[in-house]
């Protein structure tokens, strides 16, 4: 599908020629085979991209909301029309099943559409003054040039979830996609070109993550950095940005609990828990990492999970029927394997799976969907984000106990509650220390709603009008009256 080298640096409306001898090879995680190679750019190209964004900012920010919306509408439509092809590319570089990949692309287009509609809703305020001697007006203005660093687990939707509100607000941008999955970013830039994006408004740089990231953090003209990734990297970005007092928007790690109460619809809850845990092979920041099931139903619930999980089909995401694809790379597989081995060494019982999956013609980055029981709090899997297809199940006896256990983590992104009792749902949701709580729902992310965590799961919100506000500054204009 691709040439041996794919241009991947887009600056000031032009695809740049970068030394092909320094190219970075992109591999298909399902097969381990090379797909193509992309440019390995660094600090100099990033500086050029920032300069291009800075030059474009006055032009883009002075356009009306409707003018910016026109571009976003067009880009959304083009993305939807091309969803199948884009999904194929996404699956090739990331590994998730094609159905999930196409769904992600369509979801990415929805962020463009929603923020097209939001672009004209940039409201200010007229404040009542405490004195007749002045009048007070508050304006919302775009922050300026922003840097966006996106992850490999959702290589399309995380780009538009950041860029759509930034562009709607009037910002210009420099995008650095994850090194494992740059091809989706390249295709999105091509769609932006076709949709008529003015030169310099969005610039794409692939390559040396450290050098590119340092420029985005330290360059004085980059006014905000938005990042999705691990908590460890997020902390590093906070430390490095401190000297420059740079505004950050961080969507970091999660360690989501799912709580199944005895009055839950168990069959429905089992299907939803599995959908949460094994979507993208467990490589999502809001997937269920710890499952708490009431002791009166835990044995039956584990049997339901095993019956349903036995129907999963492991393989290449491009093959019909595949429901579980590979992990992104060998390092990810080793982490999953290590968590399982640690748990078993400390007494966990393997209810299902527990080992790698091997088949001729496939890479070694596959791990069987796994269910563990007899879980104790000293196991790594109860304190670290596994980011893979392993589900530890723990019984609980009462509501207070399970809320305490669920909140016993430095993370605070998402949590899930399964119950048919409205009072239980409301009471538990209020007590869970998380930015997002799903009640009988494991797909809370949607363009119109704020997405973000508390504690060490991040800063700021993405989605909804809150997501656009991240890219705005409030300016007070005080008029003295004669």
Summarize the structure in words:
This protein has 14 helices and 20 strands. The chain is of the alpha/beta class and 482 residues long. The chain has two domains: 10-252 and 456-478, Aldehyde Dehydrogenase, Chain A, domain 1 (3-Layer(aba) Sandwich), CATH 3.40.605.10; 256-446, Aldehyde Dehydrogenase, Chain A, domain 2 (3-Layer(aba) Sandwich). It has a seven-stranded mixed β-sheet with strand order 14-15-16-13-12-17-18, sandwiched between helices. Strands 9-8-7-10-11-19 form a six-stranded mixed β-sheet, sandwiched between helices. Helices cover 38% and strands 20% of the residues.
Give the gist of this structure:
Residues 26-476 form the Aldehyde dehydrogenase domain. The chain has helices spanning 43-61, 65-81, 83-94, 98-118, 157-169, 183-194, 209-218, 231-241, 266-278, 298-309, 330-345, 399-407, 422-431, 464-469, and strands spanning 10-11, 14-15, 24-27, 34-38, 125-127, 134-142, 145-149, 172-176, 202-204, 222-228, 247-251, 256-260, 288-294, 349-352, 370-373, 390-396, 414-418, 436-439, 458-459, 472-480.
């Amino acid at each position: 599908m691709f040439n041996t080298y794919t241009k991947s640096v887009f600056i000031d409306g032009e695809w740049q020629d970068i030394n092909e001898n320094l190219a970075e090879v992109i591999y298909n995680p399902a097969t381990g085979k090379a797909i193509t190679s992309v440019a390995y750019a660094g600090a100099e190209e990033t500086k050029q991209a920032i300069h291009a964004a800075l030059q474009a900012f006055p032009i883009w920010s002075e356009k009306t909301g409707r003018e910016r919306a026109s571009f976003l509408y067009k880009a959304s439509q083009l993305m939807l029309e091309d969803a199948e092809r884009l999904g194929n590319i996404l699956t090739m570089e990331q590994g998730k099943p094609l159905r999930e990949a196409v769904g992600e692309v369509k979801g990415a287009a929805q962020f463009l559409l929603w923020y097209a509609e939001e672009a004209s809703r940039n409201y200010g305020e007229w404040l009542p003054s405490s004195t007749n001697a002045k009048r007070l007006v508050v304006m919302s203005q775009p922050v300026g040039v922003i840097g966006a660093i996106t992850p490999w687990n959702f290589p399309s939707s995380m780009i538009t979830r950041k860029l759509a509100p930034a562009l709607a607000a009037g910002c210009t941008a420099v995008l650095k996609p994850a090194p494992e999955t740059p091809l989706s970013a390249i295709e999105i830039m091509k769609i932006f070109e076709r949709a008529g994006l003015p030169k310099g408004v969005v610039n794409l740089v692939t390559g040396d993550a450290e050098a590119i990231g340092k420029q985005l953090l330290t360059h004085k003209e980059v006014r905000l950095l938005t990042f999705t990734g691990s908590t460890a990297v997020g902390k590093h970005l906070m430390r490095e940005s401190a000297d420059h007092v740079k505004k950050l928007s961080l969507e970091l790690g999660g360690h989501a609990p799912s709580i199944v109460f005895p009055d839950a619809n168990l069959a429905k809850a089992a299907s939803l828990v599995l959908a949460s845990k094994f979507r993208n092979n467990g490589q999502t920041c809001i997937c269920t990492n710890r499952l708490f099931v009431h002791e009166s139903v835990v044995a039956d619930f584990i049997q339901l999970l095993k019956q349903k999980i036995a129907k999963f089909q492991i393989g290449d995401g491009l093959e019909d029927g595949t429901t579980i694809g590979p992990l992104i790379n060998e390092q990810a597989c080793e982490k999953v394997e290590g968590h399982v081995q640690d748990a078993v060494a400390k007494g966990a019982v393997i209810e299902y799976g527990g080992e790698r999956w091997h088949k001729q013609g496939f890479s070694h980055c596959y791990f069987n969907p796994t269910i563990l029981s007899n879980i104790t709090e000293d196991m790594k899997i109860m304190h670290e984000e596994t980011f893979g297809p392993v589900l530890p199940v723990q019984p609980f006896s009462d509501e207070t106990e399970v809320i305490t256990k669920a909140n016993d983590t430095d993370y605070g992104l998402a949590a899930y509650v399964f119950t048919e009792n409205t009072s239980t749902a409301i009471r538990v949701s209020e007590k869970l220390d998380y930015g997002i709580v799903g009640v009988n729902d494991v797909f809370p992310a949607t363009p119109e709603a704020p997405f973000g965590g508390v504690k060490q799961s991040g800063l700021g919100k993405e989605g909804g009008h809150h997501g656009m506000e991240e890219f705005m500054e409030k300016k007070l204009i005080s008029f003295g009256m004669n």
